[in-house]
């Protein structure tokens, strides 16, 4: 009986994960080349943030945490409080030509200083 | 002063290590005086940990910036209450708080349970001592809260988003919950070690488990309230790994609270219960590990730190030792009774347990999958809200249905016809509610509609249970309705307190579905004087103000709110720029409508010139989530309330087996 229920629960689980996927690949700018679908892009914001997130889009570049990769990003939607050059951020979206087009409102900052002081800046 | 704190910690380490080692030796050999000595070492350790905590607390209060920890987490302008709360805002302080609570709870549990679990206690002491030793080692060798430096001009300050009243209460309550789960674990393992695997350890720790589970539940809700008001994206729970870290042990503890009733009543599920207790404790350690190790690329990922491997090692040790102990004592844990029917109260408990544990495991998988995928395949992935939402619905709805059905099913075996009769009324209420909601337009979210129908079913079943019980007592002689009602609840505190908690879960679900499935959002750029519509509300932007607060520049958009032509006054979303911390923080404005339980939620997303980009959300029924917290607390209090009659009954029951109890 128990075995049967466990099997049923497991079946539901496997069906879901195999069909719906359930997870998005998470990459850095340098790993972006081979990706065709929607991905989660994480990296560090580089100087020169231009444009308007509530207009035709906020434009900036993201670079690898510790690597050579860099990519241009365009984003619309709300900008988290902690967004600024030097911060690590994550966005969801797709590469279109040489620019990573992020989904609206997908920008989150990864704050190293949530509980501990940010000694770097 | 720092020297005193550090010395106190070293003393704690010595005492708890002694309690662990000498206590284990004493329990093994049965040396009575050594057993007492180990126990007293725990008491003394509590006092020493109290001294260490006091030193840190005073340093926080006086902003003694010579302490690295104080300088890193406070500043001179920080209000006193937040300076004190910064005690648990960092890793070192958090670990110290954990140790302090652990020792406090250990001593209380040992002192209060001397009689019922006399034979188990000698083993409880070294187990608790061992766990405390782990934390003491961390504090002495890895994360020293008393490190000193030449005092800087000012401290780094406290993260603005933590300068919030909810953050005064959330972390300590969370720790009370996490640490509280240590007590049933220690007693369970001690029961196994001492071969006393009857249900006495369960009875002795029942209230401890309930209390830990209550603290954890309230802490999760306070965290959600904080996220709702302070993080301010318009939601309350985001399936972030750190949130899940607290949710998982809570779910497993919920399963355990249900399955112990089966063991007490039918002497079944002994092995299962021990596994659940060990699982809940391991998950509470895992939760601490997640929040403190920086292993996850979560938006919360607090800090990269050196304690990660220590925690991983300790969790592995705890799991290995628990599993070994359970396997070793397996012959003692064999149940003498078996499940008689698939339609019975115990079967309903079993289903509930399977769904709860399955849900906890899927959440665990969602948290672990990114880490495992990275380690094994070298591909980093993130698991998002759709995954969790799917399972919350797939497993949540059956759990809710069982919440209504379970209490209506008889123990041992129930005929389907009797069950049908019992279910008739609640089912009718649920169908009626479903049809009415469909007509009102709730069909826009099928899952939401099903959820609301189930909720109506459970609420009807709960009301029916109270009504039936009260009527039965009235019939057997209670003079007033009120007397019959209070007698009913008073004599079956756990049962009726449990029903109140069920009602709280239903309220929570109503609110969660309201915000999850039926909220409306409008956003746009507003110049002064411009209007915007959201739901039934009309918003008018009256312009911007800027003031200098105690430690921040506060910028606000003045928004006049109308609903159905009625003026509801002005609310002011905005942004604070904190000076010492050099950070901006969103300050959302929320207007709650108590009658509709609805919130108008405003975010001033961006100021440009005199314009504001405003995001307005209407969250229907969201206030039921917070109301659920109060009802949950009330139900848990009823279930936990001391019961002299029950204590006497237990004393009589175990007196036959243990003469020492008869004297008590």
Number of helices of chain A: 1
Tally of individual helices of chain B: 21
Determine the mean pLDDT of chain B: 88
What distance lies between the first and last C-alpha atoms of chain B, to the nearest angstrom? 46 Å
What structural category characterises the helix and strand content of chain B?
alpha+beta
Q: Span from first to last CA of chain A? A: 59 Å
Dominant shape of chain A: elongated
- What top-tier CATH class of chain A fits best? Mainly Beta
- Residues in helix, % of chain A: 10-25%
Strand content of chain B: 5-15%
The CATH architecture classification of chain A is Beta Barrel
Average pLDDT level of chain A: 76
- Spans of chain A of at least 5 consecutive residues whose pLDDT stays below 50 are 112-121
Side-by-side strand order of the widest sheet of chain A? 2-3-4-6-5
Q: If you had to describe this structure to a student in words, what would you say it looks like?
A:
The complex is a heterodimer of chains A (121) and B (664). By secondary structure, chain A is an alpha+beta fold. Chain A has a single domain (24-110), classed as Beta Barrel (OB fold (Dihydrolipoamide Acetyltransferase, E2P)), CATH 2.40.50.140. In chain A, 16% of the residues lie in helices and 40% in strands. Chain A has one helix spanning 2-20; strands at residues 23-27, 39-52, 57-63, 70-75, 88-96, 99-102, 108-110. In chain A, strand 5 (88-96) and strand 6 form a beta hairpin. Mean pLDDT of chain A is 76; it is low at 112-121. Chain B has 664 residues and is of the alpha+beta class. Among the domains of chain B are: 1-162, no CATH class; 164-334 and 347-366, no CATH class; 520-619, no CATH class. In chain B, strand 10 and strand 11 form a beta hairpin. The radius of gyration of chain B is 27 Å and the shape is globular. At the A-B interface, helix 1, strand 1, strand 2 and strand 7 of A face helix 13, strand 1, helix 14, strand 8 and strand 10 of B. Strand 1 of chain A pairs antiparallel with strand 1 (381-383) of chain B, so a sheet runs across the interface.
């Amino acid at each position: 009986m128990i075995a049967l229920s466990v099997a049923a629960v497991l079946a539901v689980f496997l069906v879901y994960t195999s069909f719906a996927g359930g997870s998005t690949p998470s990459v850095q700018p340098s790993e972006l080349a081979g990706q065709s679908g929607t991905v989660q892009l994480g990296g560090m914001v580089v100087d020169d943030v231009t444009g308007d997130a509530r207009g035709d889009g906020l434009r900036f570049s993201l670079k690898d945490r510790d690597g050579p990769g860099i990519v241009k990003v365009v984003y619309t939607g709300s900008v988290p409080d902690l967004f600024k050059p030097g911060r690590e951020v994550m966005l969801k979206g797709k590469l279109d030509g040489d620019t990573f087009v992020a989904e609206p409102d997908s920008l989150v900052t990864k704050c190293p200083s949530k509980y501990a002081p940010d000694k770097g800046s | 002063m720092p020297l005193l704190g550090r010395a106190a910690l070293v003393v704690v380490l010595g005492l708890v290590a002694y309690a662990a080692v000498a206590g284990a030796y004493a329990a093994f050999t049965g040396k009575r005086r050594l057993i007492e000595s180990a126990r007293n070492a725990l008491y003394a350790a509590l006092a020493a940990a109290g001294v260490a905590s006091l030193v840190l607390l005073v340093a926080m209060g006086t902003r003694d910036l010579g302490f690295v920890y104080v300088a890193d987490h406070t500043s001179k302008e920080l209000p006193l209450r937040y300076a004190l709360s910064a005690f648990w805002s960092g890793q070192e302080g958090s670990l110290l708080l954990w140790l302090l609570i652990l020792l406090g709870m250990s001593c209380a549990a040992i002192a209060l349970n001397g009689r019922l679990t006399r034979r188990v206690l000698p083993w409880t002491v070294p187990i608790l001592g061992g766990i405390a030793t782990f934390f003491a080692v961390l504090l002495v060798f890895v994360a020293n809260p008393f490190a000193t430096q030449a005092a800087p001009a000012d401290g780094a300050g406290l993260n603005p988003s933590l300068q919030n009243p909810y953050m005064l209460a959330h972390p300590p309550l969370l720790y009370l919950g996490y640490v509280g789960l240590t007590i049933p674990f220690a007693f369970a393992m001690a029961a196994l070690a001492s071969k006393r695997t009857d249900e006495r350890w369960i009875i002795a720790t029942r209230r401890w488990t309930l209390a830990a589970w209550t603290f954890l539940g309230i802490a999760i809700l306070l965290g959600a309230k904080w996220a709702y008001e302070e993080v301010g994206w318009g939601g309350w729970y985001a399936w972030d790994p750190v949130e899940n870290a607290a949710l998982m042990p809570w779910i497993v503890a919920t399963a355990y609270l249900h399955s112990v009733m089966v063991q007490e009543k039918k002497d079944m599920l002994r092995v299962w219960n021990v596994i659940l207790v060990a699982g809940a404790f391991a998950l509470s350690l895992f939760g601490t590990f997640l929040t403190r190790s920086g292993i996850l690329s979560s938006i919360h990922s607090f800090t990269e730190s050196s304690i990660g491997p220590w925690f991983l090692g300790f969790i592995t040790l705890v799991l290995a030792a628990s599993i070994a102990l359970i396997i070793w004592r397996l012959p003692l844990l064999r149940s003498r009774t078996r499940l008689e029917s698939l339609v019975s109260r115990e079967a309903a408990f079993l289903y509930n347990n399977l769904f709860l544990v399955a849900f906890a495991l899927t959440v665990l998988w969602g948290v672990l999958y990114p880490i495992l995928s990275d380690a094994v395949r070298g591909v980093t992935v993130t698991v998002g809200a759709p995954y969790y939402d799917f399972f919350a619905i797939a497993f949540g709805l059956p759990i809710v249905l069982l919440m209504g059905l379970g209490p209506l099913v008889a123990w041992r075996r129930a005929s389907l016809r009797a069950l049908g009769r019992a279910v008739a009324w609640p089912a009718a209420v649920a169908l009626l509610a479903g049809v009415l909601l469909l007509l009102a337009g709730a069909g826009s979210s099928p899952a939401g509609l099903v959820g609301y129908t189930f909720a109506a079913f459970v609420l009807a079943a709960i009301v029916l249970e109270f009504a039936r019980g009260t009527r039965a007592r009235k019939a057997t002689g209670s003079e007033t309705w009120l007397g019959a009602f209070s007698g009913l609840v008073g004599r079956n505190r756990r049962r009726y307190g449990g029903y109140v908690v069920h009602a709280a879960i239903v309220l929570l679900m109503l609110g969660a579905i309201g915000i999850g499935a039926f909220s409306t959002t409008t956003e746009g750029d507003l110049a002064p004087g411009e209007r915007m519509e959201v739901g039934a509300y009309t918003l008018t932007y009256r312009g911007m103000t800027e003031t200098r607060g105690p430690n921040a520049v506060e910028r606000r958009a003045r928004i006049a709110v109308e609903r159905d032509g009625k003026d509801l006054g002005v609310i002011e979303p905005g942004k604070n720029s904190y000076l010492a911390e050099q950070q901006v923080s969103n300050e959302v404005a929320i207007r709650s409508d108590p009658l509709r339980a609805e919130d108008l939620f405003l975010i001033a997303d961006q100021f440009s010139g005199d314009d504001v980009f405003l995001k307005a959300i209407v969250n229907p029924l969201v206030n039921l989530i917070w109301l659920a917290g109060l009802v949950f607390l009330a139900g848990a209090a009823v279930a936990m309330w001391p019961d002299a009659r029950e204590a006497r009954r237990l004393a009589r029951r175990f007196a036959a087996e243990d003469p020492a109890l008869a004297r008590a």
